[in-house]
Amino acid sequence: MRFNSFKLICIFLTVALVGCGDVRPEALTVGETKCSHCSMSIVDMRFHTQLITYKGKRYHFDAIECMEQFQKQKDLKIAKVWVTNYLDTKEFIPKDEAIIIHSDKIRSPMGAGLAAFKTHEDSSQFQN
């Protein structure tokens, strides 16, 4: 009886600890994943955006504007949203910390000209 209780406690603790890990953005291979909103292949990683719900469902987008339209259309409880740093495609920034600008100098996949930057200084050269 003691052994069975010990096994149950170990299983419970393992499941609880696995669920407590920090959720991070996933790196993608160019062209392998489609946008969850418009279904275009994600090929320009400067605009890649990710959203994860509280239930753990992850969505990928080819542009910030696709993610915003998707959010408006769906009633999701969102846990985290990351945007790619326009100047460093390997760096993800939490959307609420990013500097998102609209510029005619930026040609985003869907044409809205939205891009995310880490700092205001980084975005200054693209400001209209």
UniProtKB/TrEMBL annotation:
Coiled coil: none annotated. InterPro entries: N2O_reductase_NosL. PANTHER family: HTH-TYPE TRANSCRIPTIONAL REPRESSOR YCNK. This is Accessory protein NosL. It comes from Leptospira bourretii.
